[in-house]
From TrEMBL:
Top-rank lineage group of the source organism: Bacteria
Keywords for this protein: DNA damage, DNA repair, Glycosidase, Hydrolase, Metal-binding, Zinc
Protein name, entry field: DNA-3-methyladenine glycosylase I
Any single GO BP term: base-excision repair
Function statement: Hydrolysis of the deoxyribose N-glycosidic bond to excise 3-methyladenine from the damaged DNA polymer formed by alkylation lesions.
Amino acid sequence: MQKHRCGWCLGDPLYEAYHDTEWGVPVKDDATLFEFLILETFQAGLSWITVLRKRENFRKAFDYFDYKKIASYDQGKIDELLQDPGIIRNKLKVNATVSNANAFMEIQEEFGSFSKYIWGFVENKPIKNKLQNYKNAPATTSLSDTISKDLKKRGFKFVGSTVIYAHMQATGMVNDHEVNCFRYHEV
């Protein structure tokens, strides 16, 4: 018997695997939260599948999303990244990744971990929506607006409300699996 999945991932094995194993699973690990945050910032204005197909290239190019290393990237490393055809070569987004790594560590210092900070917005419990169809999922919410504003105030870039809501979905802060999707109750 075939599993019922959310409609957005159907037809692409990479998308389906991501949906089945990662999307919507609550993430509390700072390194993984950082990876998703950076990937979501690169996704801004593009489709998620575009980023997903380049994910391994991003991992290699950005030292496997080691935010401590990224925070110390110099202009030479930034120039190298801008020549890498395996990633999305957007100068503003590459530079934002470096500044976001620094802001990320400042939050860790203040709150003990980025996870404590970000999950504090949902009182450490995922918001469980009841979507019948993924097309009815919001692009933003008042909560993603609030988080976006707070991150921007703390120096983050490319963290608009849409990027933050996508991050919330990806990292399980909100469960936007369709109610008839096999993952809805699993996550």
